[in-house]
Amino acid sequence: MHNPKVSILLVVKNAYPLVLGALDSLKKQTFNDFDVIVTDGASTDGTLGALHEEAKELKLRLVSEPDRSLADGFAKALARADADIVGMLCADERYYPHALAQVVEWFDDEPDTVMCGGKVDFIDEHGYVVGSHLTAPFDLRAHLACELVPSNLSSFFNRCRIGPDFRFDADVPSCPDYEFWARLGFRFPASAFKRHDLSVAQAYRTRDSMSFRAESFTQFCRDKLAHLNNLLAKGYGGPDRETLRQRAAAGIHMWAAEQLSGIEPGHPDILAHCAAAARYDRSYERVDRLVGTIANVRYDAKAGAIRYNRLGPQTAVVGRFEALSPHAHWDGSTLLEREPLTIRTSTEPWGYSLEMAISDATAIANSDGGQYWARIDLEVIQGAVGISVLAGERLMGEQLHRKGDGLVTALIPVDFHPTPPLMVRSGGHPSSLLRIYGAELLRDPDPNLEAVAPIELTP
After folding, report:
1. 8 A C-beta contact, residue 344 and residue 333
2. Which of 125, 299, 368, 402 has the fewest Cβ atoms within 10 Å of its own Cβ atom?
3. Does residue 409 sit in helix, strand or coil?
4. pLDDT, tens digit, for every residue of 195-209?
5. CB-hemisphere CA count at 13 Å for 169?
6. Which of 294, 94, 293 is nearest to 201 (CA)?
7. Do residues 386 and 435 make contact, with C-beta atoms less than 8 angstroms apart?
């Protein structure tokens, strides 16, 4: 692509003084043959004044008028774009001085690509870099399920190659980029999207940004689902579109849950989004993976339900776990005393150290279902230990306990029959010391106790 025309879309509304940083980053570009298409949503603060002032040094094409949403603002900006290469910028974002020169070089080397992009660095309110993100190679199904979320800021588009698909859907209030990237992915092969391991832009990672406010994610999910359903209703996805819909809808909810867990770990919507994802696809591994990191909850994949680790009023003891001698190949693991059961764990940091098997399975064999639990009363005297259920070769429901926790009760769901053994292992500290005062198998006859309700996305 020789001597391309470059445009940057800047969409703002009442963004003063934040917009000054975005404009300053444009003035510092080492490549200066570009214009800035500004869509202002009828700002009433100092934004318009700043834009008019910066027009003395930048080639600004400014339109200021009321808009319905950020999506509407970007839709208007894209409709005005006529350059060969187009980038998108918001008030809380900045380009590095080399960004546009680098992008032009990338397109000069590969003129037929649909998109060329780099990395984005995240900065705090003081301007310090607190993280960096390089979007993985583009994959349509991963994008639809929000397993991959492309960075608009660090992406630049070949408008001529994209043609009539270079537009945003303004009928849905937020996340127009989700629909835009999906349309491109349905049309172009993954090889047409190029991503380079070089930082080209910065974005604020503070609560001033809507993307990092917990209260925004219900809206984001609602709108991404609307975009997904609109695309599939138009025939995108072909005969496989219903399967595509189920996995993508589950992925959208899991994306919201994962983002919330990083922004506000105790937010109640995290589990509600997980429950909604399971309603679409109960086998989705992201549900089990995230729920497994949250204390006092478990994922019942058979029922597609997330449940709190709480015992019902009819819970009863149906068996006890007894310690087996440590295997000879578990280096250093030793059963020191039988009463109370005292264990020296393996010399390996996460080494297996002791199995505890159920002593009497008669009551289990004669039961008519329900939820089973392993309850272990324990105290870590030295180091740290992990307690879990050993299901085949997998450790399920592992809990980590450390010296200083005092006497604690571990409650681990048991979802396998026959009842698997418990596993005690070093919890990252070799040769830890543990006392177990009791290990019982419990049965709660009500398996539906305390299920998490899926989040409801009302219009």
Report:
1. yes
2. 368
3. strand
4. 999 999 999 876 555
5. 21
6. 94
7. no
